[in-house]
Each structure stands twice: as structure tokens, then as C-alpha cells.
């Protein structure tokens, strides 16, 4: 394949791999990046919300030419039952700022743009190349990779694995254990196209303003999961995801669930007359802090989804991917400058630096959430129903007096779940949140 | 109340969804294979509904078969069967498989 030796090989051209490759190439390191897709992004799926802060730290002027869809001025959080939603909406003119904080993007287009920046910084990218295994020397230090190309080996001082959630290279090389069906979600998503003006009038938007909806409730048929609907310039991204082991037990199909969500009376009008142009599926690592694997060793580092860096509660992943990729890249540059070996002991610096960032701090803060949600599925079925029923009782004017209405609402909650159950849930949730 | 099985059986046609996607099929080189079996395990059977591309189905002898052409390369079937080893799963050769235009 390529005879020369590299300072670093990066596996994958998603946000984590791109961030790592960009950081190292910009500092003059010789970087080879390998991507199995025909072009970067051709295998990748995201909602997708881009968090500006993580990208700004890499490419401060990204707004000049990155393919951004809409900046988000309104967030809607919906708790849904079969006929209704109870929503919390936050919209602010403050989000119409010079350097907006969050944007919707289309991943395949965004990844292509990011990859161009990586190549402009000097990295060599080989697409249509699947990495099959890590190569090691007699002492076990990783010294390169074998790919599915003819004579497809390449050597480097360090291999950075940004191979995503279904990361076969690291798994099969024994760097980390197999993903567990109860700590990874399967999400399906569609792209629905509509004229720009239609989207803007349906969502009360102008210019490039955008709205995002995050939803939970009976839409996941009792499984742990959430759904989303995001506005792009001329399309709407709509998707739903649940924990894989829940799917296996429940018997629902992912596409059936997506259809039901799209046909919900609160969602259907938003998508009316749209043309669907793509259907995608992807896993999301949701095990959180407790499922983070070994992150480094002799001659290797793991970044992004491959390292389980996703904050499922806040639906953040790409920013953690970019941040871990950047810090891995910076660590390698730093060690190279000091002419230090890329050994396990020295690469521990990567973890030390990560511990100081929001990535580790947030995941640690939420470490109990995955287990809480796993063991308290009524959060997704029973509570949304109770909340919707309470809202209806409260808003319907029917001659019943308000005190009786209050009592009825309280009674419905107690009937649905014992008082100690209710208090227990609140307590457990508060503790998981802490 | 919406019940899970009802939703699953709501008649959503996954074939129509896949029809919109672009693929480069590596003809004659399926990247997923099922271990030959007489009677499928519960886990293997679950793939007939968990696979988001509907790649798994039962043949008239009750065994689970795969037609991986519409595979979205999510990896769900791989992790679900990781412990039992009933499936051999590889990524398609570089460049082949699904090609997302939007993702
Ligand atoms: C439906 C959905 C919605 C999401 N929404 C959001 C959101 O709104 N905001 C957000 O921040 N995050 C979101 N996420 C999470 C986010 O997409 C991920 O956290 C992020 O993409 C991880 O980046 P990564 O670079 O680690 O992995 P990936 O983006 O998966 O990239 C891995 C790359 O490696 C390549 N690769 C894998 N194996 C090999 C190999 N053996 N050889 C060569 N190349 C290989 C792949 O083709 C791919 O290009 C969402 C995820 C999903 C599935
Ligand atoms: S990888 Fe995903 S889409 Fe492909 S066969 Fe397995 S479950 Fe289906």
C-alpha cells in the first residue's frame, strides 16, 4: 500500500478521526487516515445537531464555509402519549447571535467538508479502505495496521482508533470488550424534503433559524428510547431510537416504530407532503461513564464513539468525538515534540487531559443514569400517560370544580404508581442526576 | 394503548424505505453469514424484527436466512449474537455497501 512510515495512522474519518488527524497534520506530523467508505460520511448517521464550541476549538472560522443548515433558536422537549404531547419549549432571540451555539447539519455533507480541511492541513486520506487488524511488534506494541487492500499494511508510531461505535478493529484486537445489547441504542432516521418556505411557516422561522424537537413517551412502546425531529434548510430529519436489548425483547420493528412516530397526530402535520429521500440506521453507545473502555496502550489511542463518549441525556456525541480526537492529537504532538516514545505510560497523558474536560466530567456526573433508565421503564410509558391525562383534566372546562380536578390528578398518579413508588422514582432520578 | 407488537406489525414496508437508498453491492461476497442451523435460537429469531433493514427472514423450513443487500451496516445483529457466535459479520470491502447521501 504505502511503503513510508507515518507519525500517526488514524482509523476512520468521522468527527473524532477528523479532529485527531487535523490537529496532528496542522502541527506538521505525517498522518495517514483510513476510511472504509467511498467518501467520508458515506457510512455515517447523525440527527444531527452540531455544537459549535467543540469545532471552534479546531477551526475557529468554520462558519465561513462549513455546510451548516440552520442555527437553533428553539428547543422543544415533548412528553408524548398516543394522542397528545406535553411540551417544554424554549425560544430566544439570544440564539440569533453572531456566532450561534448550535446548528443542524447533514452529516454526509459535513464530513466531506471536515475531511477537506484535514487534507488541506496535510494529512493523507485513503478512502475505500477497511482496516482489518492492528499490527504489533514482538513486545506487543502496536506498530501499524493491516487493511483489505492488496499488500495493505501501513506503519506508524501510533494508531488512533476513531472507528465509531461498531468498532471491530479495537474489539477484535482485544483492546476493549464486546458491546452489550443493553448499553447501546439502535436509531433509525429518515430525511424528508420540503420547500424552505414551507418549513419556515410550519415552524415559525425566518432566514436560517431552526427548531429541534426531542420526544419521549409511549412512542417507544415501553422501551428505553427517544425520538427527534430537526429542521434543516430544505429538509426535516426525523428519527427514533431504543436500546437494542429492548428491541429484542419487545418485538417491535425499528421501522414500524418510526412509522408510528411519523403518524402521531402531533408529528404528521409537520411532515405533510414531504418527500422522503433516505432511510438510515446506526448504533449509539449509551452505556456512559461505566462502559468507557481502556483508552490507550502501547502505540494506540481510542477516540469518539469507539470509546463510548456519548452523553445520551443531552444527545451529545459529535462534540465529545471532536474533543477526544483533538486531545488525542494534541497529546501525540506534545510527546513527539519532546521526542518521547508513544508508550502506554506516556500516552496516559491523554486520559489526564481528558479528565480535565467537560467530556469526562459530564459522563461521570451522569454515570448512574443508564442504569436508572434501564430499571425504570415506566418513565417512558406510564409517566407520559399520567402527565398527558393530568394536563387534559386541568385544561378541559367541564363544570367540575378545580379542587376536585386537583384531587383527580393526584389520584391518577397514585393509582398509576404507589406514593412510595413516585417518591422513590423522584429520589432515584435526583440521585442519578447528581 | 399502543402495544408493541401492534406497532411492529403496523405494516410499515421496509423494502420501500430501502429503495430510496444508494448501495454498491459486492456481488457474490455477502459480508454477513448465518451459521447453519436446523432450529433457530430465540436470539436468531429476534433478528427478523430487530434488523432495521429487514434483512433476516424465515424460510419455509423455519430456518432464519439473510439477504444482506439492503444492510445498513449498523451492527445490531452482530452485537446481539456476539455471545452465541451464530453470525459471522464483517464490514463490506472498502467502498462497498450502503452509501449515505445525507446520513
Ligand atoms: C441517529 C443519531 C443521532 C445523533 N444525533 C446527534 C446529535 O444531534 N448531536 C451529536 O453531537 N451527536 C449525535 N449523535 C452521535 C454522533 O453521531 C456520534 O457521537 C459521532 O458520530 C461519533 O463520531 P466518531 O468519529 O467517533 O464515529 P463515526 O462518526 O461513527 O465515524 C467512524 C468512522 O470510521 C469509519 N470506520 C469504521 N471502521 C473502520 C475500519 N475498520 N476501517 C476504516 N474505517 C472505518 C466509519 O466508516 C466512519 O466514517 C447521533 C447519533 C445517531 C446514530
Ligand atoms: S448490520 Fe444492521 S442492517 Fe445489517 S443485517 Fe445486521 S441488523 Fe440488519
UniProtKB/TrEMBL annotation, chain A:
MF terms (GO), sorted A to Z: FAD binding; oxidoreductase activity
UniProt keyword terms in alphabetical order: FAD, Flavoprotein, Oxidoreductase
Record-linked SUPFAM superfamilies: FAD-linked reductases, C-terminal domain, FAD/NAD(P)-binding domain
Domain FixC-like C-terminal: 370-434
Essential cofactor(s): FAD
Family: Belongs to the ETF-QO/FixC family.
Protein name in the entry: Protein FixC
Organism: Methylocapsa palsarum
Automatic annotation (TrEMBL), chain B:
Domain ETF-QO/FixX C-terminal, residue spans: 49-100
Superkingdom of origin: Bacteria
Cited InterPro entries: ETF-QO/FixX_C, Fd_FixX
Pfam families, alphabetized: Fer4_ETF_QO (PF05187)
Keywords: Electron transport, Iron, Iron-sulfur, Metal-binding, Nitrogen fixation, Transport
Sample GO molecular function, one term: iron-sulfur cluster binding
Physiological role: Could be a 3Fe-4S cluster-containing protein.
Assigned protein family: To ferredoxins from P.putida and C.tartarivorum, ferredoxin I from A.vinelandii, ferredoxin II from D.desulfuricans.
Protein name, UniProt field: Ferredoxin-like protein
Organism of origin: Methylocapsa palsarum
Lineage: Bacteria, Pseudomonadati, Pseudomonadota, Alphaproteobacteria, Hyphomicrobiales
